[in-house]
Amino acid sequence: MSEHCCGIKIGEIVPDFRIETFEPVKGDFGETGLKALIKKKKWTVLFFYPADFTFV
């Protein structure tokens, strides 16, 4: 059985991704990615909350 059964674990490097965001300054949707956040030296918290389709 594979030891890597459950996705990314704490301390592992997260692969780059792009995600749709809401930008309140523009009042519109936009897009960003992990590489862009790292380049801007932004702290980033990733979490998964299944079955909830509301803004957090």
Any overview of this molecule?
It is a single chain. This protein has 56 residues and is an alpha+beta fold. The protein has a domain at 16-44. 11% of the residues lie in helices and 21% in strands. It has 1 helix and 2 strands. The chain has a two-stranded antiparallel sheet.
Q: Given the C-alpha coordinates, what overall shape results? A: flat
- Based on secondary structure, the structural category is alpha+beta
Distance between the termini: 36 Å
Subunit arrangement of the protein = single chain
Q: What integer value in Å does the Rg equal?
A: 14 Å
The averaged pLDDT comes out at 79
Q: How many strand units?
A: 2
Summarize the structure.
The protein has 56 residues and is of the alpha+beta class. 11% of the residues lie in helices and 21% in strands.
